[in-house]
């Protein structure tokens, strides 16, 4: 089973690509719109819903949901206004990060999950939908999900990736959430001076949005020690799972990094719970390496969940 190429390596690849394109005086987005330079999950072709069709259907039921994609909804290279912004947007497109907005249509409030790279466009997407972002949740604290300082050797360039820090700065009443084992590192990575605005969550923590929508944190260590999935419920019924870098369609996030916990990837209580969710529950990943979405049943049959032993068998 394929795993993703580390975000640090993708950052390096994308920066080098951007430099080469700049040297040729061609920084068009087409140069960066191909597949990620990593091993891809082997999955069968399948159709996906037209843009916003799924979002519209759920909105009719009271759940607001948007999957924002780089190059389409945010981080559009053609909209970059500075050389640094052009670099960051091209990197974002190459890394295929997803940003999510999940909320309650009645209260018109939502939570931003893994907001990064282009905060202005994320804010604008919510505003255009008549929604107010009231909180920011990170699936884990890697730079491509919360922003801040990029990995070596590029941290010396003084480049800061917009993300959690800027989203919190937009509204003094907003709070951020990250798993408790990664709070300290996240504060340092993004340079947050008021650390009290970043709250810790743990397995089972619930973030209520409006009266009917709940985001429940499921701790799924492996990719990082604090990696989490987010189970979204509406009126107590499971609606979808945001899997961060724990599950990609047909694959999973790398677990050979210094901050990884490989022994937990297939054995934590959290991932075992995920493996027991209903077959047709849709999973939305942190990157679209293998597709925009998958299902629990598909991943249990031919993805990482196939290697997870249900709690009932232990």
From TrEMBL:
Co-factor(s)? Zn(2+)
GO-annotated molecular function: hydrolase activity; metal ion binding
Q: Which residues form the Metallo-beta-lactamase domain?
A: 95-287
Transmembrane helix keyword on record: no
Composition bias (Basic and acidic residues) maps to: 14-27
Q: Where does the source fall among the domains of life?
A: Eukaryota
Which Pfam families does the UniProt entry name for this protein? Lactamase_B (PF00753)
Keywords (alphabetical) are: Hydrolase, Metal-binding, Zinc
Question: Which Gene3D superfamilies does the protein's record reference?
Answer: Ribonuclease Z/Hydroxyacylglutathione hydrolase-like
Q: Where do the segments described as Disordered lie?
A: 14-54
What PANTHER family does the annotation carry? HYDROXYACYLGLUTATHIONE HYDROLASE GLOC
Which named protein is this? Metallo-beta-lactamase
Task: Report the source organism.
Answer: Chloropicon roscoffensis
